[in-house]
DNA sequence: TGTCCACGTCT
DNA sequence: AAGACGTGGAC
């Protein structure tokens, strides 16, 4: 039986992650699930530890400002998650919903995260479909439709056990992360091998069937380092929405698909939907832009995305 | 070097 | 419904 085999495997093989505590802590579950969106476990662990050390409860986090949260979130990416987290904390401190339907109304909580929290934190029967689950089940059922996420959810629902639904959800994702990996899956160690459709065909890596990705365009900009005589550097805050919203930056020219002449150091960075090539130049006129002046040793007090850390490296 | 992970959510 | 939205590490 699917769920028994999976649960037995999970009991033996689960990783001991900082948010996997018993009894479950809904704050930990929610915070870790937001951080884990599009982000690997190894990357998330140090951020999660920092957050719960600084803000041990949802009430503590609810009292934090967005700027404080962005400073701790810097480097984790998808900064809209931090903006939604800040809003969401204030709601959750008042009332933490228990059902999938209510949870999915929260900012930053979509169908996957709502089901994950409902099952993991509250033991509800909810089908959480993330990339791991899509991979495991599209292989198990040898699903040949392109972008099979929807089919996977329908197949998953009747497999959910009455008891231990949270462990079942985590077990499925854990199996995807450790055994049913995108490349070179470890089928000999898999509790589902016997009934796996893709394994029967020996075509594991042909699933899931994904639409081909388009190639990323490159954009170009010049970034200006403005340095005062006392060593302070000019930073400014980006608009609250959109790319790197609410994060700090050095001034740049508009980011366009027109290559710039190389005058200074070159920095390359890839975003979700484009590459960026930056020409980093000192700027003589310290009055050329508005912003705040920050001493190099104080840069860590500000929320800087990785792109800006690369640009400021050595300053 | 370039591609993939990475369906997750919002608009 | 399709595009916006980061990052780093594996291969």
Put the structure in a nutshell:
With 315 residues, this protein is an alpha+beta fold.
* Main sheet strand line-up: 1-5-4
**Continuous helix count:** 13
CATH topology of the largest domain: the name is Endonuclease III, domain 1
User: How much helix is in the residues?
Assistant: 25-40%
Cα shape = globular
Q: Report on the biggest sheet.
A: 3 strands, mixed
Q: Strand fraction band?
A: 5-15%
Q: SS-based structural class?
A: alpha+beta
Order of helices and strands: HHHHHHHHHHHHEEEEEEH
Architecture (CATH level 2) name of the largest domain: Orthogonal Bundle
Radius of gyration: 23 Å
Structural commentary:
- By secondary structure, the protein is an alpha+beta fold.
- It folds into two domains: 2-206, Hypothetical protein, domain 2 (Endonuclease III, domain 1); 218-312, Nucleoside Triphosphate Pyrophosphohydrolase.
- Helix content is 40%, strand content 11%.
- It has 13 helices and six strands.
- The strands form two sheets. The chain has a three-stranded mixed sheet, covered by helices on one side.
- Strand 4 (265-270) and strand 5 form a beta hairpin.
- The relative contact order is 0.11.
- It binds a DNA duplex (11 and 11 nucleotides) through helix 6, helix 8 and helix 9.
